[in-house]
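Example record for the data management plan.
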Amino acid sequence: MHTALICRLHPVILIIFLMMMASAANAETSATPETVMVTYQPRPNQEQSLTKVIEKHWQVAKQLNLVAASPHVVLVGGEGDKRFIVEIFTWRDVSIPDNAPKTITELWHDMNELVETRDGKPGLEFQSVDVLRNSP
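Corresponding structural encoding:
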């Protein structure tokens, strides 16, 4: 049957269909973003390699539409073998890390190979944070 014929014969079906479409649209826009701060403790002589993996992770996450464009900040600090990297970004939805695609989890594996536990802190530490102000 043609769609026009179904709509003429069954206006209730049309109403139900439109309600379902509106519900699906609302579900897509009801994501709960999560801003995270990730602290990396690179192994000695691995800071450059880790920085490359962090950048690749960001590019892949953007391509897959998993992260918001802003904020995204990568900072480095420390001295000698006690260097650290801090990355701040926002997942488009809080559920993404628990349901990350394989390409992302493979990059997480690579990151874990390049970090070390230091001073009782894990090589990778994730904290959920709130953005108080986001300047352009």
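Summary line stored alongside the record: Confidence is low (pLDDT under 50) at residues 17-27.
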